[in-house]
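[job 4471] stage=fold_predict status=RUNNING
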Amino acid sequence: MGTNTREGDARRSVHLLRRVPLGAGITCIIMLAFNLRPGVVSAGPVLEELESDLSLTPVLVSALTTLPVLCFGLVGALTPWLEVRVGLRNLTVLAGSVIAAGLLARSAAPNGLSFLVLSAVAFAGMAIGNVILPSLVNVHFASRVGKVTSIYTTVLAGGILAASVLTVPVATLAGSWRWGLALWGAVACIGVLPVAGLVRRVPHVWAAAHRRHLDAIQPARKRGRRVRGTRSGLTFRAVARTRLGWVMALFFGLQSIQAFAGFGWLAQIYRDAGFSASAAGMLLGVVTATVVPLSLAMPLLVARTGHPGPLVCALALLYPVAYIGLAVAPVSGAWLWAVLLGVANAIFPVSLLLIGLRARTENGTAALSGFTQSVGYLLSVVGPFGVGVLHTLTGAWTVPLFALAALAVPQCATGLYLARPVIIEDVVSAAPAATVRQR
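[job 4471] inference complete, writing structure tokens
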């Protein structure tokens, strides 16, 4: 009887899966991906107006540029725990709703402190989305993971581009920076609708898919005992005991420093060089527009090369060229430096691909990704905050830009290490056997 019941449930799940429009599933992923960065990027082009209207001190401005990576690290580390207890479909709707609510509310914030708190709310939703997006892809597009991953990373870059280019024109037309920021809260509200609609239509599919996903990512549990460190039960703690895990986290953290320092300060650097707010937003848009096609091309190129180390180093070494150029000739070479920074930022999709290449199983990928992103984002807090502090101390952008340029050296070193064919499951299994405790 039990077997027949399970077989009947399986048949019903397959039947329901056939009723799920392919477009509806990919629309959920695209809309969530699009909304993961505009809230971070949109404040940069209007930072001067924010400082003036909300009386933001230099410390609060530096805190604002640091909040995204801090939330991505802390909340991202909690997301797997939330996923187990809340469920993937509910967490997807929650992430989109929190992003929308936080972005809309902060556009009406009366003072600097409330703006930071509401921004943190939105960034927490984005942190959840960062972690669950790969899960959504694995659960609903298991046979097309590579293609769908390329699509959502490109869409994510498209969200950055849209926020960089459109925030200032909308704010100018509406007469206030508040409308420029509120736009992205409205877009996030629209993004919640396809997710909620799909959940309502086919809840059993989400539930069955979520159970299969949990079976893959949770540590192995046996009768009366728990096995740690095995391939079927790879954990966050097991990854933390490996050199590969820490090098991966450092590599991810270094590229995050570059990305979020750019999101937070690049538009202001251009404005201080003499560009208008709209021109600074356009230059930031050039950086992002360059990343969009590379987000599709770079993962394919790295996957086809047997040794991606030279490519990673070539991308990393573009940072010092662009930053030194920006310090020496910020106006005459502005467009060239923006393009070079955009090409260098293609390290982000490469870092996501390297996580997948350095794990063999879904559980290994989830554990390595969770450790890499949470620790990497926390390490990268020093970037945007440090740039703000150095600018405040020196009164110029030369020292912060040279400091960012120097980070290309450890970026190359970690990239060369990760180019080696090392697999996290093999590293963990080669370590001393983990203890098996009787419950």
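[job 4471] summary: The two ends are 32 Å apart (CA to CA).
[job 4471] exit 0
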